[in-house]
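Memo to structure team: turn this sequence into structure tokens by end of day. - J.P.
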Amino acid sequence: METTLTERRISPGRTLLGSLQLPGDKSISHRYGMLAAFASGSSRFTNFSTGADCASTLACMAALGAKVTRGEDGSVEVTGLGGHFEAPGTALDCGNSGSTMRMLSGLIAGQKGEFTLIGDESLSRRPMERIRKPLTAMGARIALTEGHAPIHIAGVPLTGMDYTTPIPSAQVKTALLFAGLSAKGTTTIREGLRTRDHGELALRAFGAKVERTIDSISIAEGAELHAIQAAVPGDMSSAAFFLCAAALFPDSSLVLTKLGLNPTRATLLDVLTTLGAHVNVLDIEEKHGELNGTVHVSAPKNGLGTAEISGGLAAQLIDEIPVLAAIAPYTRDGIRIRDARELRVKESDRIALVVQNLRAMGAEVTEHEDGMDVPGNQTLHGATINSGGDHRIAMAFAIAALKAEGDTLIQGAEAASISFPEFWNILDNITER
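Reply from structure team:
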């Protein structure tokens, strides 16, 4: 495998073997970092995400006045401000992180002062009206730039509300719950499809009163957050690449320890089981509402079968769909994906890029506005892959390349550092050739 920063050459693999503990969950790390900065006292986190996105969150917290310290052991300590941020004299740079920009907008909307949030070229193309509209309904003063970043926020007192999200989004839900920390009255969020619940679990861990019903989450006013100590579970969305790779190869055996098993995130394990992979979960533990455990995956002797991903399943698997689509040609009967239009407005148009790159490798695939049909029992060949600067596309096609005929060149491979800078070395270490 080549070691240049911008390109990686992937040779076909024979099987995957190994035991891993992955860096901390990105979604949890974002939320812990923000709430620790808002809370009183010093919080300490081990196994905090090593990705550039979470580094952007910590940098924004420091710019707002929190003290952020990284230990030599990889730990992160955040000393909070007791519910009152300082308006910085410069813009808050969210880098490539939509999570940072959307959730932080909710956290600072009720603070005193003027705030500007900026991002890189990719982030500046992503839709932000979805947070502006409900935050404005709470009284926030938010100005977008043609529906996108830069975002200008003039902090004003907020009022709680009862809001139904038109598009299922954990980021929007969390942004509004964070805004509820500074709002008068109760803030209630309703969602038609349940999205990942790391935000509400983190709020409870820090001391907020959060109530859940079948279809709603409410946060009461006046919460005083207090520091916590936590080990962040391994990231399931990062594990997805290795889990899918192991499911492809006979005689594979992959063990992942201390992996996050939050029920709103572990749907991938159900899909791999449906496809025929052997998935065993052991040693489950719970801390601060988050589950973690050991997962062992191996491939079925007669290959993977078929699956359909649509409806609520598509919403829960939105980060994992690119890698599932990338391995779909190697299944017996293919994978059908629908209700995943949200992929069009991620770091790239992920539907278009997955289809483009599958075709470059010789696959037959039918593109739809909200998904794709990828027939099974196909043979792919190595090709030059355009990642579009998107970390999940680069990593997904590294997995597809392992079972292709001939070498594959991943362009824009450095994008993996956005979420998972260790990806390439780990993939090299567990792949037998």
